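// run 5 | inverse folding | seed 20
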C-alpha cells in the first residue's frame, strides 16, 4: 500500500488543472497588454513555462510586446524574458537587440543578453555602457567562459580540507543540466554513505530550472557551491507536494540559520569552508555570487508536477523546478506515491547521528 496519498497528484486533478491552465493562457493571449492585465500576462507566462505550452495565436504578438517592453515595469520585463528564454530561443533575436539597452533593470538587461547568447549572438558591450558597472556584468561574462573551466572529481569532496569531521550532502551534476545528477552523502568519517553491500548510495536529483537560465538569475538553474542547511519542512505548495523537503539558504540570504551568522569576513569564511583543494574551482563560488545578487528560496524538494509535460525532453521523467534541487517522485492515478527518491534520502539524513550543516552542488568530471 502506498505510504502517501495526495489528491493534487492524481490523474483526475492533474487533467483538470492542466485544462484550466491552458484555458487561462488562451484567454490571456487575447487580452491587450496594459496596467490592468499585467498580472494576467505574468500568470500566463508562468503556466506556459510549466507546461512548455506555446499557444498558436500568440507567436505573432511577440514582436509588438518586445517593442513595448521598455515602457513596462521591470517585474513584467523579467517575467516576459523568462518565458521567451524558455519557449522561443533564437526566434526574436533582432527584436531583442533593438531594445535591450532600454530595459528597466540590469537584471533584465542580463536576461536579454543571455537570450541572445543562446544563439551565440554575443553583444559587444562597450566599456562606457552603464551595464558594465552593474553587479550582473561579471557573472554574465563568467558564463561565457564556463566551458573552459576545469571541473573537480567527486572524490575531491572527501578531501580532509573540506568540512573535516562533518556530514555533508553533495549534489553532483552535469554541465548539461538536461542530464539529471544525483545526491551522495559524505559521512563525518570522510567516506561516502553506502548500503549494506558496500555500494555507494546515489539518489537521482535534477538541478535544472524549467527555463534553463544561468545560475545568477532569478528562477535560473541551481547555482553550484555551498548552502547552509536550515532543517526540514513540509511545503504548502501543491506542485512541490507533501514529501519532506530540506530547507537551505544561500550566502547573504536572510534565514533562521544564516550562512555567515555574525561573521562579516564573507569571502574568508567561504574560502575556509571550501578548503584548500576545492578553492581552486571557480565554479564552486556560484552560490556566493547568486546570494550576493539576491537569489533566495532554493531548497531540495520532491515533486507532484505531471511529467507528461516533458515527454520530449532529455530529463524526462524528471520534472524541473524554478531553480531548486528536485528529486523525482512517481504517483499513480489515485494520487498515491509509489516511488520517491526524495523520501529515500531525506529519511536517511533524518536518521544520521550528526545532521549536516551544509549541502554543496557541483558539476563534476566523473558523473
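// decoded
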Amino acid at each position: 500500500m502506498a505510504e502517501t496519498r495526495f489528491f493534487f497528484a492524481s490523474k483526475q486533478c492533474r487533467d483538470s488543472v492542466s485544462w484550466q491552465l491552458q484555458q487561462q493562457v488562451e484567454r490571456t493571449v487575447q487580452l491587450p497588454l496594459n496596467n490592468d492585465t499585467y498580472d494576467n500576462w505574468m500568470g500566463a507566462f508562468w503556466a506556459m513555462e510549466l507546461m512548455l505550452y506555446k499557444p498558436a495565436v500568440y507567436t505573432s504578438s511577440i514582436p509588438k510586446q518586445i517593442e513595448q517592453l521598455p515602457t513596462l515595469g521591470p517585474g513584467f520585463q523579467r517575467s516576459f524574458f523568462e518565458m521567451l528564454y524558455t519557449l522561443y530561443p533564437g526566434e526574436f533575436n533582432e527584436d531583442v537587440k533593438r531594445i535591450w539597452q532600454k530595459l528597466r533593470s540590469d537584471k533584465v538587461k542580463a536576461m536579454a543578453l543571455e537570450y541572445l547568447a543562446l544563439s551565440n549572438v554575443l553583444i559587444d558591450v562597450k566599456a562606457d555602457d552603464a551595464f558594465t558597472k552593474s553587479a550582473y556584468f561579471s557573472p554574465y561574462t563568467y558564463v561565457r567562459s564556463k566551458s573552459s573551466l576545469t571541473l573537480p572529481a567527486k572524490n575531491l569532496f572527501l578531501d580532509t580540507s573540506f568540512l573535516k569531521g562533518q556530514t555533508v550532502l553533495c549534489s553532483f551534476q552535469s554541465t548539461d543540466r538536461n542530464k539529471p545528477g544525483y545526491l551522495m552523502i559524505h559521512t563525518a568519517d570522510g567516506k561516502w554513505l553506502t548500503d549494506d553491500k558496500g555500494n555507494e548510495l546515489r539518489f537521482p536529483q535534477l538541478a535544472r530550472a524549467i527555463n534553463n537560465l544561468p545560475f545568477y538569475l532569478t528562477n535560473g538553474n541551481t547555482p553550484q557551491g555551498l548552502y547552509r542547511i536550515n532543517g526540514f519542512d513540509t511545503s504548502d505548495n501543491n506542485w512541490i507536494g507533501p514529501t519532506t523537503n530540506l530547507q537551505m539558504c544561500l550566502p547573504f540570504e536572510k534565514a533562521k540559520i544564516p550562512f555567515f551568522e555574525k561573521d562579516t569576513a564573507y569571502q574568508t569564511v567561504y574560502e575556509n569552508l571550501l578548503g584548500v583543494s576545492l578553492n581552486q574551482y571557480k565554479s564552486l563560488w556560484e552560490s556566493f555570487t547568486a546570494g550576493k545578487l539576491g537569489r533566495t528560496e532554493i531548497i531540495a524538494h520532491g515533486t507532484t508536477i505531471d511529467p507528461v509535460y516533458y515527454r520530449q525532453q532529455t530529463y524526462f521523467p524528471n520534472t524541473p523546478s524554478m531553480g531548486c534541487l528536485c528529486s523525482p517522485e512517481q504517483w499513480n492515478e489515485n494520487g498515491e506515491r509509489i516511488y520517491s527518491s526524495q523520501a529515500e534520502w531525506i529519511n536517511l539524513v533524518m536518521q544520521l547521528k550528526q545532521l549536516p550543516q551544509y549541502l554543496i552542488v557541483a558539476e563534476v568530471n566523473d558523473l
